[in-house]
Amino acid sequence: TLMKLLAGIISHDSGKIQAGHNVTCSYYAQHQADSLDPKKTVLESMDELSHNLLQTQMRTILGSFLFSGDDVNKKVSVLSGGERSRLSLARMLAYPSSLLLLDEPTNHLDMRSCEVLSAAMYDYEGTLCIISHDRYFLDGFVNRVWEVKQGSVSEYIGNYSEYENSKNQEREIELSSPKVSVKKPAISSQQRTHDRKRIEAENRNIRHQTLKPLLSNLKKIEALLEKVLTEKTIVEKKLAHSDIYESKNKAQLLEILNQQIKLTNEEKALTENWDKLSSQIEIFNAGSILKK
Quick check: 292 pLDDT over 50? Predict the structure, then answer.
């Protein structure tokens, strides 16, 4: 209910919900995957919401959600429940808002997919509001927990495990001193938050230095692949004209066909390199989350 209120799906009975200046919101519901067009391919489905992105950029995003190579040409109708969920999340992140509302995003996802999503959420620079029963997923990137209880909201700084520790401390204090009402986590949580942010900053710096050359090479391959795809489109348009198949244009036709073969081979080689490099980046991102 809280998530639907924030997303504007349902109206509130009283009070006021006011978004910040220039805040844009995207909402991922538990059954979001059911809204996908089953007749479209994975790549076509991405293109619905990301018209300003190049094909290579869309492939990069899809690769981050484990859609690589020929997977992008699969019809949505043949995808499993987990694959549809991954596609829905990829579509949302292709055109990210400043506020993401995610209701049980790990439903139907296997462990590997959860790790990939956790890595994507870690890198997301906006605000995330997530409802999830997967504590290990949340621990990868959550930095504060809201406890909604008896008509009030209590905020706990830190991830879900730190929230549980704070709750255990509160219960111990309540048992030892029943008259004392503790509504906030121990003061030491401020120091834990400071240390956690310092460690996160150090990890981000190490991660950046490792990822920088990989991302640079990926960008170069994407530029080359985009150029090849553009040239291939021009060649295919030439072959679509009936005049080119007349006997007088035989030499020109052979030249165009040779060019098509050359471009197809280049596309295949670049795509393989792109897939390999993307996999390396995915593995590194997933590893970063697991180490936390």
Answer: no
